[in-house]
Design a protein that fits this description.
Length: 245
């Protein structure tokens, strides 16, 4: 599924069907970045054929410069081998909080990996990317990233949602993402949430948005939210309130 989000941001990827007809997206985001493409996550290995075909269709003869990993679970890192085999000069960018000798495959060379530090802003292929600690995460080494040029906040597992199959190709301005879709996903992906203070969690997430001009929310397990960000946040907040303490 190759779709243009806005500006030079694209999303690709597939979905998996779960129980009772609910589907879960596994997305990879690409900033074309004027000849030095930036990839965010690599998708699941079970979708390798489709993802690599979509990447090659989108990029053509241009090699990606960097692959940013939100964290090291397989749905996010499952295709780094295929990507590095196709474009061996690409660099991986992972959180400084990971244990690389444990969380990255043995064949990844030390010189292929760069690290992002929460609270910093670095330049990759001429593009400023900011790193922040993932507010909602299921691995300690999860970080979120922000691209000021497109206004995109890459949120890893947070802000994902489950959806009926017919919604697979739709953005938020093409259908109504229901609170129930967000709640179903978050209570499944973050089983600790019933023990969490929803008010404190939402206050921390509000700070992320208050400090940045977020025009796109890009979750791995949902389509990019690109239209009414305030309404998307309201639905997310309601889902969290229904799930948390």
């Amino acid at each position: 599924m190759l779709r243009h989000v806005r500006d030079d941001l694209y999303q690709i990827g597939e979905s998996v069907a779960g129980r009772d007809g609910w589907h879960e997206a596994v997305r990879v985001y690409v900033l074309l970045n004027d000849g030095c493409p930036l990839l965010f996550d690599s998708g699941s290995h079970i979708h390798r054929g489709a993802i690599m075909e979509e990447l090659k269709t989108l990029l053509g003869d241009v090699a990606p410069g960097y692959v940013f990993l939100t964290h090291t679970e397989l749905p996010h890192t499952g295709n780094i081998q295929a990507i590095l085999e196709a474009w061996p000069e690409a660099k991986l960018v992972a959180s400084s909080a990971i244990l690389p000798h444990v969380e990255l495959p043995w064949w990844v060379r030390e010189e292929q990996v760069l690290y992002g530090y929460a609270g910093t802003d670095e330049i990759y292929g001429g593009r400023h990317i900011s790193f922040l600690d993932g507010i909602l995460k299921d691995q300690p080494g999860t970080h979120w990233m922000y691209d000021a040029q497109s206004g995109t906040l890459f949120t890893a597992d947070a802000f994902g949602y489950l959806y009926p199959g017919e919604a697979d190709l739709k953005f938020d301005d093409e259908l109504r993402v229901e609170v129930e879709w967000l709640r179903r996903y978050h209570e499944s992906a973050f089983r600790f949430l019933p023990q969490v203070s929803g008010a404190r969690l939402l206050a921390e997430i509000d700070q992320v948005f208050d400090k940045r001009d977020v025009r796109v929310i890009a979750p791995t397990h949902g389509n990019a939210m690109r239209q009414d960000i305030d309404r998307c946040r309201d639905r997310f907040s309601q889902a969290i309130k229904e799930t948390c303490q």
